[in-house]
Amino acid sequence: MEVVTGGAGFIGSHLVEKLVKENKDVLVLDNFSTGKIENLKNVKNRKNLRIERCDLVTDRIDEKLKNAEVVYHLAANPEVRLIDPHVHFSNVTATFNLLEAMRKNDVNKIFFASSSVVYGDPEKTPTPEEAPLRPISLYGAAKVTSEALIASYSHTYGFDAYVFRLANVVGKRSNHGVIFDFIRKLKTNPKVLEILGDGTQRKSYIHVSDCISAIMHVKEKINDGYNVFNVGNTDSISVLEIADVVVDKLNLKNVEKKILGGREGRGWIGDVKFMHLDISKLLSLGWKPSLNSKQAVERATLELLEDLKE
After folding, report:
1. Considering the entire predicted model, what is its pTM?
2. Same domain, yes or no, for 79 and 161?
3. Rounded Cα gap, residues 106 and 87, in angstroms
4. Can you give 231-257 as a three-state secondary structure string?
5. Among this protein's residues, is 139 annotated catalytic?
6. Are both 210 and 298 inside the same structural domain?
7. In this structure, is residue 123 part of a structural domain?
8. CB distance 196 to 268 below 8 Å
9. Which of 72, 119, 139, 205 is labelled catalytic?
10. pLDDT digits 0-9 by tens, 9-29
11. Is position 279 within any domain?
């Protein structure tokens, strides 16, 4: 059995679909604080899928992992902008509780969705996996702490661990992030688009389908030990360029872009203004993204517009 925490969320639901269609027996654990059962509508009636409401922080999970062989840990509050430290520390608690349940049940393989924000404002761009981890957000600090816990369990208890530091993942079912925000704002007021920061923020974007293919590729190629991979793209795109894409896909004209500025031109406190991951380690395994950053943004915009129609 393969367990996916946060399996009803944005990335998690796409991963669950992939595993179920490969005829794996899958257990989804999700507290549905941000995940939705509708995200699993394409596979929820499959006999090899079980979905349970479960909070990794407050619920007992030992029994749930009894027959597990591998865990994909994607459960977390995904909102980078939150500055409530208790919310982000709960993500650390969830990781610890999950690792303990794995240890007690002799489950020794974990795939963890980390984030590019662990690097903070990097000294080197593109940023390799060996770069110092200096998060500037509470969300990033929680990811670094979870990585450290997983590394310690890997080396102490012999877990095989795979940490994926994800760039901005976009696509169908996403309910936060710049593309989602722009669509929501323009649906409310198609004449003016407010832009957080100074608009020059530039980051790599990867479509969720490429994100899932990267995880599956590593699973196939690497069989043991503690492993860390950047998952992103070979290029980047600015916030102003994303705004142009969204305006175009909405078939709008003469939209006024209202730049809000923000501290140091950042979109919010803790926002990493420039992010471009070095993905050469992943490329060396024979994987590559099918869409560049702009293509990923274009496809995601169309998918989110379709989501709104459903």
Report:
1. 0.96
2. yes
3. 29
4. ECCCCCEEHHHHHHHHHHHCCCCCCEE
5. yes
6. no
7. yes
8. yes
9. 139
10. 999 999 999 999 999 999 999
11. no
